[in-house]
Specification:
heterodimer; A: Non-ribosomal Peptide Synthetase Peptidyl Carrier Protein, Chain A; 52% helix; B: alpha/beta; FAD/NAD(P)-binding domain; seven-stranded mixed β-sheet; 18 helices
């Protein structure tokens, strides 16, 4: 999966979680949590969706890697190389 | 509608034991993840402590007293929009005690204003306090107690301590001596936007959840008390119920954590080290309640939705649990609670210790229940004059009642103290495939805490099931 496709995947999952999420002004290197009003339960939803859609197992200690859109892509790129 | 246990198949991906809000939510999440799910409930009604009962045309809600706004998002994400759309605000929260009287919407804006104008606390102190509690996480250091937190920001201000603590003690059974994070997390949740309730009552909510589960394909059986969780060589194999073995890849117990370990699972399934931790779990206190129904044709004037009342001079966590406590909440249910049911009811709630009620003879027990009712009526008269003559139903529940209907150890109505959380979350590392969901650690309690914890545990279950493939 390309970096752009991974980015779209994350945004698509977030859109399911929060219909009102505004991606227009989203800065990829800033924490998603601060910009989109996401809480720890929302990040758990992202983890569950990634497991459901791509059989990815993300251990709890790696959750901080999902903090920003950029860090998500960096973390997921090697894991989704064949997806 | 739930089916008879005889209709259950011999094998499921996941069996959920118990249908509290945590069990119901786990079942719904796991069926969403694609597993076959069997939900077993010992009682004839689903919901666990999220329950209700009918008497003489009244419907009494046992634990629908108000939850934080976070419930809106949680219900939309993990249940459905119809459930979410029934959530409405309770705007009039009343405090009435010898130290102060006030009416509030119980949110940060109004609390800030009250603390500043009525209690004369400097704005900078209030802001600093809110910032501190809002930043608390359950994995933070837990050495500071709530008492120490209050003393740091509001030294010697027992009135402020009361305002901040009393509602949370009723919400989750925590005391001034519990870790400050258990206070801060729950308090911040409420302060977000205030207190909310479910229009239509507990019966409507559980009915909607049951329909959703059935539509999603969960098999639900009531009057099905699980006798044993079957473990072989450190791995869960299923459960035994009514002499039948049901095979399962994972078992989620929504029975109490202490019930799960001591009553449902063979003790030799756990390591000595784990049992040592389990032995240290303290269950939280239980409750007493008095349920009162107003005669048809009579009404309750607008006296508030939730009243925190006390005649005790100062707030004291142990006074709140005393056998003859002078502190109680009144939850007032107007016809707006159930728009198609034109009746008024009041539920008085008190914190209570199981041990205080455990050793009475039948006669003493009945007499003490009657005395509890009389004490409650005297207090209620201050808000609803001549209460006794205007009611056509009144009955009391005690820690023994809570124990009978939920089977919880010592009738606990708020799960366990903080140490229960770690044991609950790590049980599947001891016995592969065995999970626990339910009120633990003070923070994972209440309606919102129970539902969210159901989601957190479902994530663990899903990760485990997929790791087996």
């Amino acid at each position: 999966m390309t970096r752009d496709a991974i980015k779209d995947l994350i945004l698509e999952i977030i859109e399911d979680i929060d219909e009102d999420a505004d991606f227009e002004t989203l800065q990829a290197d800033k924490p998603l949590r601060d910009q989109l009003d996401l809480d720890s339960m929302d990040f758990l939803d992202i983890v569950m969706e990634l497991r459901k859609r791509h059989k990815l197992q993300i251990p709890e200690e790696d959750y901080p890697q999902l903090a920003t859109l950029d860090s998500c892509v960096n973390y997921l790129e090697p894991l989704l190389v064949d997806a | 509608m739930p089916v008879s246990f005889s209709k259950a198949a011999d094998k499921y991906d996941v069996v959920v034991i118990g249908s509290g809000l945590g069990g119901l939510t786990s079942a719904n999440r796991l069926v969403y993840c694609g597993y076959s799910v069997l939900l077993l409930e010992y009682h004839s009604q689903l919901g666990g402590l999220a329950t209700w009962f009918k008497r003489k045309g009244h419907i009494f809600d046992v634990s629908l007293h108000g939850f934080p706004y976070g419930m809106v998002k949680t219900c939309r994400k993990y249940w459905n929009k119809e459930i979410m759309n029934s959530i409405v605000q309770l705007k009039d929260i009343i405090f009435d005690n010898p130290q102060f009287h006030l009416k509030t919407t119980f949110d940060r804006v109004d609390f800030t204003s009250k603390l500043n104008k009525q209690f004369k606390v400097p704005q900078s102190t209030i802001d600093a306090f809110f910032t501190r509690v809002a930043g608390m996480n359950f994995y933070d250091d837990q050495s500071m107690t709530t008492r120490e937190l209050f003393e740091e920001f509001f030294p010697g201000r027992s009135d402020v301590h009361r305002l901040l603590m009393e509602p949370i003690s009723y919400a989750n059974g925590s005391t001034l001596d519990d870790p400050a994070i258990t206070y801060g997390i729950v308090f911040s949740n409420f302060m977000n936007k205030g207190v909310f309730t479910f229009e239509g009552g507990t019966d409507k909510l559980i009915g909607m959840m049951t329909t959703e589960l059935e539509n999603n394909g969960v098999t639900i059986c009531t009057k099905a008390k699980v006798d044993r969780i079957v473990v072989d060589k450190g791995v869960v194999r299923g459960i035994e119920c009514q002499g039948r073995m049901i095979e399962a890849g994972a078992v989620v117990s929504n029975s109490g954590i202490t019930n799960t370990i001591y009553n449902l699972t063979d003790k030799d399934a756990f390591s000595l080290e784990f049992m040592e931790k389990a032995d240290k779990i303290r269950v939280n206190n239980s409750s007493c309640q008095v349920y009162m129904g107003v005669k048809k044709g009579d009404k309750i004037d607008d006296i508030g939705d939730l009243l925190f009342t006390s005649t005790a001079e100062e707030f004291d966590s142990s006074e709140l649990r005393d056998f003859k406590t002078e502190s109680k909440t009144f939850s007032v249910y107007y016809p707006k609670t159930r728009p198609d049911h034109d009746r008024y009811t009041i539920v008085a709630s008190m914190n209570a210790n199981y041990a205080d009620w455990d050793n009475f003879t039948d006669e003493e027990y009945e007499n003490e229940k009657e005395a509890l009712i009389q004490r409650t009526l005297i207090d209620l008269n201050r808000y609803f004059p001549n209460a006794k003559d205007r009611l056509d139903w009144i009955e009391a529940a005690t820690p023994r009642t809570f124990n009978r209907y939920t089977l919880h150890t010592q009738g606990t109505s708020f799960g366990t103290k903080f140490e229960g959380l770690d044991v609950s979350r790590s049980i599947f590392k001891e016995v592969n495939g065995l999970f626990h969901v339910g009120s633990v650690g003070i923070i994972m309690s209440g309606w919102l805490g129970a539902i969210n914890y159901g989601v957190i545990v479902s994530n663990d279950v899903d990760a485990y099931m997929r790791s087996k493939d």
